[in-house]
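Would you mind writing out the residues of a protein together with its fold in token form for me to study?
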Amino acid sequence: MSIRCKAAVAWAAGEALVIEEVELSPPQPLEIRIKVVCTSLCRSDLTAWLSQAQPQIFPRIFGHEASGIVESVGEGVTEFELGDHVLTLFSGECMRCRPCASRKSNICHTLGLERQGLMHSDKKTRFSLKGKPIYHYCAVSSFSEYTVVHSGCAVKISPVAPLDKICLLSCGVAAGLGAAWKVANISEGSTVVIFGLGTVGLSVAQGAKLRGASRIIGIDTNPEKSERAKAFGVTDFLNPNDHDQPIQQVISGITDDGADYAFECVGDTGMITVALQSCCAGWGLTVTLGVPKEKPDISAHYGLFLSGRTLTGSLFGGWKPKSDLPSLVDMYLKKEIEIDSYITHNLMFEDINEAFELMREGKCLRCVIHMPK
């Protein structure tokens, strides 16, 4: 049956979210309905909320980094039962398409990034208000007491994992760790430079530290991030505003002509070129993880590539979400990876707009939003 629940609705780009009572359809075939327990604000939520690019898909419910409990299942669902603890997945895994069948990619052709505010299966919405549709975000929409997702866009996890912490593995922390481990495959003793020291960048730093990188250089224009970054493994903090030379020249000067690995975690395509120029000739690898807010095209001199540098992208750290995330949860439970320190604020659902302001002002890493019990 349909249910009524509270959700934080964005009525227009950049406008404060409004807590509304909305109607949520029952799960359709191969879908599940989840009672959201905790959800955290990711910068991509903020970017999409501010963007004027798709005014036609408002009103909208954002949120994609979440943990919860299965409330009901649709026809044909066999892997989930009522009461299962799950993480939501902004990019799913159907297990059947060519990329899912290969170990070479995690870009599912069936359940990949959904950009039109609809569900994958029937291109409709599950939320409505007074008979009118409310659009989804990444086919998750976790800024709601309950949500419906495709069963391929959720993963069952250990019931002993704390849902108020583990929700961060649904996106940001896993994305950074995977970029360091699966995509770049950082080697022991190497030099790493990271542009942008938010949750994703600091997760790259943690991954580099655990791989035994000898030097981890963090780049950010916010001087307040310096001390926090060191806790995650950053050995050198550089603020571009403190230097007369371009930052890529500074990096080259202190790393014997460039780092082994460079990670762009800002979401600025101009910074991708800077990152390329910051890694060494011959084998330097640049990984881009950020979501650009504007100017999606990349410009770089061909000589950077001719001299042996490589540029690659990383979506969700290369992890196959349903296949790989349970192992990360187990690593957390064994205290092999750190998650708790990324949580700088815990807020109640009714204070969700405060989370957006904190992120806009650069005053938080992750705000975990606790849903009503």
The longest strand covers residues 31-40. The chain is about 25% helix and 25% strand.
